[in-house]
Each structure stands twice: as C-alpha cells, then as structure tokens.
UniProtKB/TrEMBL annotation:
Pfam families: MbnB_TglH_ChrH. Coiled coil: none annotated. NCBIfam families: PRK05409.1 (NF003818). This is Uncharacterized protein. Signal peptide: none annotated. InterPro entries: MbnB/TglH/ChrH (IPR007801), Xyl_isomerase-like_sf (IPR036237). It comes from Thermomonospora echinospora.
C-alpha cells in the first residue's frame, strides 16, 4: 500500500496519471530541468517556452493578489511547486495552523502537484532566527519533526516533500547519521524527499566526508525532485549561497545521482546576483547535460 501511494504521488508530480497511454517499459516523462521563479527573473522564466516546472517561495505569494507572471505560467500548464521556508517543521512547538493554511491555499491557487518545506527550524520560544537552522539528529528531534510533518500533511491538499538543509554546523551528541535520520523520518511520515544536490556537496565538504556515501544510502526512490545551486568557500567553510554559479563538483554529483536513480526533475535555485540571461541558460543546459536530459527549448 505504501509503495502504491508513493507511485501515485510521483505520477501526480510528473503529470503521468494515465499509465495506460504509454508502454510499461517506457520511462516516465518527468519534469526535466526547471528554474525557481523569482520576481527579478520573471521575464526570463516566462521566456522559456519548453519549461515544464518551476518553484516559488510560498510565503511570497499573496492569495488574493498572486503575481500575474506566476499565474500565467500556471495557465500555460507549467507545474508550480510552492516551497515553504517558515513552517519550522523541526521546531519543538507544533506548526502554526495559519502557516499551514497559507501553504495549502497557495497549493490550491497554483494547482500545485505537491509542496515542499525544510528539515529545519526557524523559531524557538517565540524568537525568529531569520535562518534555516539544522535540527539535532536525536530521537527527540525526530519525534518533533514526525509530529509536525503529520500535522502539516493532514491539512494539505497535495503531498509534501521535505528538504535536508546545508548546515554550517552539527549539534553534538547525535544519535543518527544523516542518512539514517532522513530514512527513518521518511518511513515514519510517508513524505517525499526534496534532495538538494548542492546541500549534499556542501555538507560532505564541510564534514570532510564523501558525498557519494550519502547518495548510496538514501532512499532515492522517494525523491520528488532535486535542487541544484551554487556556493562558495568562505573562512574554511563552503556556503550554499544561491548567488554563485553551480560548481563542477555539484554537476558531477548530478551525474552520479542520475546514474543511480534519475529523479523526475532538477531545479536551478538562484536568489540574488542574477547573471545575464545567457549565463542562466548555460547553467540550465549544464544541469541538463549532467542529468542526461534534454535542454529547455
């Protein structure tokens, strides 16, 4: 039953809801390569006629006054994933009902196939951190995450994918490594996985570990889609900036992931210092090449 639900959720994302229309041995159509929608590059995104999916920060969408460029993409048939940044799923307190309601309403407004959020917390005891903070990899933290994800999913009209963050530090006294923590979380909640390849690279580099070890231990069949982004080294740590070009090491990980289990789609994240359109196109083409996918026409 669980595998059947998982297949339905991934088919909902790709739009492959009628399996009878294709041969059973044909690969699912997937989503290809997308780019995150931001107001600063809305014109560029709108000018990609072959774009099949995009992502928008859920908290930036006003239910009564959504950006016209975003609704135009929706009406064009582009799949839009609302990506939450402020639910604080990893917090000790229950998720705020109004925040979950906004995420659900945004999904309905944009006819989203799913929504996504982070394995992180952003507030504690009423104080806002202003950043995505890593959760301790302990049983208590896993219990809190499980409860909050279940509460959230109960109010959502679509499936939820959760994203492990890039962390500049790990809390002490961990009871799980990252692979075991994420695997148990997905098993407990039946959520999907938003796998950020840049975060895999950042965490492995900062911990002095091999990123392929994590890839080989994650349940890759649960991946809904992937993020790809750039970063830079600063004061001995690699920062997931979203303002720098995607490095060769991250593209190499995209190739490794595609060789193991190709997810439905790869999405380029850019959040500032936007380069010229030609450079953005080159990054999308590079991701497509690494993943063995067709470029956006």
């Amino acid at each position: 039953m669980r595998r059947r639900r998982l297949r339905w959720r991934l088919r909902r994302l790709t739009g492959d809801m009628d399996e009878g229309t294709r041969h059973r041995d044909d690969p699912p159509p997937g989503l290809g390569v997308g780019i995150g929608w931001r107001p600063e590059i809305a014109g560029f995104v709108a000018g990609l006629p072959g774009l099949r999916f995009t992502e928008v920060i859920a908290e930036s969408v006003h239910r009564d006054h959504p950006p016209s460029g975003l609704t135009a993409l929706r009406d064009r048939g582009v799949r839009i994933v609302p990506h939450g940044v402020r639910l604080s799923l990893g917090g000790a307190e229950p998720v705020a009902a109004e925040r979950v309601a906004h995420l659900a309403a945004t999904a309905e407004l944009l006819r989203a196939p799913l929504v996504s959020e982070h394995v992180a917390f952003v507030r504690a005891d009423g104080m806002e951190a202003g950043h995505l903070l890593p959760v301790p990899r302990t049983r208590a933290a896993l219990d809190a995450l499980t409860d909050n994800i279940r509460r959230t999913c109960a109010e959502l009209p679509v499936p939820l994918a959760v994203e492990p963050i890039a962390a500049l530090f790990d809390w002490p006294d961990a009871e799980y490594d990252e692979a075991d923590f994420l695997t148990e979380l997905l098993e407990r909640t039946d959520a999907l996985l938003l796998l950020d390849i840049a975060n895999v690279h950042a965490n492995a580099r900062n911990r002095g570990e091999d990123p392929l070890v994590l890839l080989d231990r994650l349940p890759l069949e649960r991946v809904a889609y992937c993020h790809v982004a750039g970063g830079r080294q600063h004061e001995g740590l690699y920062h997931d900036t979203h303002t720098d070009p995607v490095p060769a090491e991250v593209l190499a990980l995209v190739r490794e992931l595609a060789a193991r289990h190709r997810p439905p789609g790869f999405l380029l994240e850019r959040d500032g210092r936007y380069p010229p359109a030609a450079d953005l196109r080159a990054e999308l083409d590079a991701i497509a090449g690494a993943a063995g996918l067709a470029v956006i026409t």
